């Protein structure tokens, strides 16, 4: 099952497990947001880089992932500032490394 990333849109696609035939399609009722998709791709690239390299500082990982996009004017408004993704990246690293905070015996 696939669903549109826009939560207000009820678009979905259902296909059979064994075969690659589409079983049911519900069309979009929203306009595509290509900028949001690009932001998700950048955030996913950051997440993967943080999980794959647990010893490199978060700031260096951020700079290495963002650097290829900085020369392209299309991405100037799409690139998240470090301060806005810093906490997300640290939480991601903790999840990847299996570290959980415990308060009074409860995670």
Structural overview:
- The longest helix has 19 residues.
- With 107 residues, this protein is mostly helical.
- Helix 1 crosses helix 3.
- It has two domains: 31 residues, no CATH class; 64 residues, no CATH class.
- It has a three-stranded antiparallel β-sheet with strand order 1-2-3, with no helix packed on it.
- The chain is built from three helices and three strands; from the N terminus they run βββααα.
- The protein is 45% helix and 10% strand.
- Strand-residue proportion: 5-15%
Overall SS class? mainly alpha
Regions with little confidence, pLDDT below 50 for 5+ residues? none
Rg, rounded, reads 18 Å
Count of DSSP-assigned helices: 3
Oligomer: single chain
Helix content: 40-55%
Biggest β-sheet description: 3 strands, antiparallel
End-to-end separation: 32 Å
Mean pLDDT over all positions: 83
Number of strands: 3
Element string (H = helix, E = strand): EEEHHH
Sequence of strands across the biggest β-sheet: 1-2-3
Number of domains: 2
Q: Outline, from the CA principal axes?
A: extended
């Amino acid at each position: 099952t696939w669903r549109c990333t826009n939560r207000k849109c009820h678009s979905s696609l259902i296909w059979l497990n064994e075969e690659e035939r589409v079983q049911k399609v519900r069309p979009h009722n929203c306009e595509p947001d290509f900028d949001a998709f690009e932001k998700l791709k950048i955030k996913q690239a950051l997440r993967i880089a943080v999980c794959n390299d647990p010893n490199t500082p978060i700031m260096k990982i951020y700079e290495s992932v963002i650097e290829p996009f900085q020369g392209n004017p299309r991405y100037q408004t799409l690139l998240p500032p470090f301060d806005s993704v810093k906490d997300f990246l640290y939480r991601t690293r903790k999840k990847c490394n299996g570290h959980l905070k415990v308060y009074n015996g409860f995670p």
